[in-house]
Design a protein that fits this description.
The protein contains 7 helices and 4 strands; from the N terminus they run H-E-H-E-H-E-H-H-E-H-H. The protein is 37% helix and 8% strand. The chain starts with 6 loop residues before the first helix and ends in a 10-residue tail after the last helix. The protein is mainly alpha-helical. The chain is globular and about 55 Å long. The protein has one domain: Rossmann fold, CATH 3.40.50.
Length: 218
C-alpha cells in the first residue's frame, strides 16, 4: 500500500484492510517541502493496524521541476490551465516501481494506490489509463509474474469524487485528523488553508456533509 499520509491513501488503506488484506505500507520520503505528511503516514499506518510500514528515502530534489521539491516554484492556489506546478515529474511511476519491488519481496498479490482522477489537479499519472498500463508493465517485468503469479495494481478511489472518498473513509472509521494533505503544512502538520490541495480537501468535507477535522494555521 502506497501511503502518503494524506486523506486519499488513508481511505484506501482502510478499504483494503476492510476487505481482509494484510497491508504492508510504503511511504516515500522524496524531499518534499515538509515532513508533516511523513509523520502523518506513520500515525495512519499505526492506527490502521498495518502489518509493516517502511519509509524509503529517495531525494527527487536532485531533478526539481516541481513546486513540491523546488521552493523557487510557486505553489498552486487555484485551478490552472494545463498541468499545475505541484506535479512531480514521474512521481507515481517511481513510487509504483518501488512498491512493485516491495510487493515482489513480500510475495504480495496486489499493490494499492490512492491515485484519483476525478477531484484531482490534472496529474497525468493519476489516470486509470496509467494504472492499467503500469499493471501491464509490472507483469512483464517481475520474476513472480513470469512464473505465473501476476500482481494487480488497485486504485479503488480512482473514479470517486473527493466527497465520496471522505464518506467512504468516514464509514470505515478513518481518523482524518491524523492525515495531512496540504502542500505547505507547518512542522506541526497544520494546513495552510490556501493551496490547491487544501481547497480540494475542504470541498470534499463540505460536499460529504461531514465536519472537517483538518487543523489549519489560520
Amino acid at each position: 500500500m502506497l501511503l502518503s499520509g494524506g486523506l486519499d491513501s488513508a481511505t484506501v488503506l482502510a478499504l483494503a484492510a476492510g476487505d481482509g488484506w494484510r497491508c504492508h505500507a510504503l511511504t516515500v520520503d522524496y524531499g518534499q517541502r515538509h515532513r508533516a505528511e511523513i509523520d502523518a503516514a506513520v500515525k495512519v499506518a499505526r492506527a490502521s493496524g498495518a502489518v509493516e510500514h517502511r519509509i524509503v528515502p529517495l531525494d527527487l530534489r536532485v531533478f526539481g521541476g516541481s513546486a513540491l521539491t523546488d521552493s523557487s516554484i510557486g505553489l498552486p492556489t487555484a485551478p490552472t490551465a494545463g498541468i499545475p506546478g505541484a506535479y512531480v515529474p514521474a512521481r507515481n511511476t517511481i513510487f509504483l516501481s518501488l512498491a512493485l519491488a516491495y510487493a515482489e519481496v513480500r510475495d504480495a498479490d496486489a499493490i494499492f494506490t490512492g491515485a484519483n482522477a476525478v477531484d484531482y489537479s490534472g496529474y497525468p499519472d493519476c489516470r486509470p489509463e496509467f494504472i492499467a498500463a503500469f499493471e501491464t508493465l509490472a507483469n512483464l517485468a517481475t520474476k513472480r509474474a513470469v512464473e505465473g503469479a501476476p500482481v494487480s495494481i488497485r486504485a479503488p478511489i480512482v473514479r470517486m469524487s473527493k466527497a465520496d472518498i471522505v464518506r467512504a473513509g468516514a464509514a470505515l472509521g478513518v481518523d482524518f485528523s491524523l492525515t495531512v494533505s496540504c502542500y505547505d503544512a507547518d512542522s506541526e502538520g497544520r494546513a495552510c488553508g490556501r493551496c490547491e490541495a487544501c481547497r480540494l480537501r475542504r470541498e470534499g468535507f463540505a460536499g460529504a456533509g461531514i465536519a472537517d477535522t483538518t487543523r489549519y494555521r489560520r
